[in-house]
Design goal:
It contains no helices and 15 strands. By secondary structure, the protein is mainly beta. It has a single domain, classed as Tumour Suppressor Smad4, CATH 2.60.200.
Length: 153
């Protein structure tokens, strides 16, 4: 089991298959740290008044680039059934990051749940540990710039 003991930079596990995402989860692809957040539809006020403003064109989530402690940079709206991230192809591109594969990862929305999947990247897709997670034999944990592979005898 791996538990993050409230470290500043977090502990990340390399995902295998598809992982459910929760609002606030942090993803790492290449050198990019990304925070996922759900965009909830506006709720009426207690008295039933509906909040006016620009209508949401169908965004269900947002990815924000984490640039510092409690500081976000660029944000990308998420819409449709899925978005793909990569260096060369996809909906969200990181062309300057040589550690991001041409097509790297996918975030999809199905049946009201959000999922993260690696789509065959060279360096993997990592999800920050919240609480405690199992680290299977052969699995990878990333702490800072150090990548560890779990081996059990």
């Amino acid at each position: 089991m791996v538990r993050d003991l409230r470290s500043l930079n977090g502990v990340f596990l390399k995902i295998a298959g598809e992982e459910p995402l929760e609002s606030g989860d942090v993803i790492r692809i290449g050198q990019e740290l990304l925070r996922f957040e759900i965009i909830a539809p506006p709720a009426p006020l207690e008295d039933g008044t509906e909040v006016a403003g620009t209508p949401n064109p169908g965004f269900w989530g947002r990815l924000s680039v984490v640039v510092g402690r409690d500081v976000d940079g660029s944000a990308f709206p998420l819409f449709g059934d899925a978005i793909v991230m990569g260096r060369e192809r996809g909906d969200i591109l990181f062309p300057e990051d040589g550690y991001v594969s041409g097509t790297h990862a996918r975030i999809s929305l199905r049946n009201g749940r959000v999922y993260l999947a690696d789509v065959g990247s060279s360096n993997g897709t990592f999800l920050r540990v919240r609480g405690e997670r199992e680290l299977p034999a052969g699995g990878f944990a990333l702490m800072g710039q150090q990548l560890f592979r779990a081996e059990y005898r």
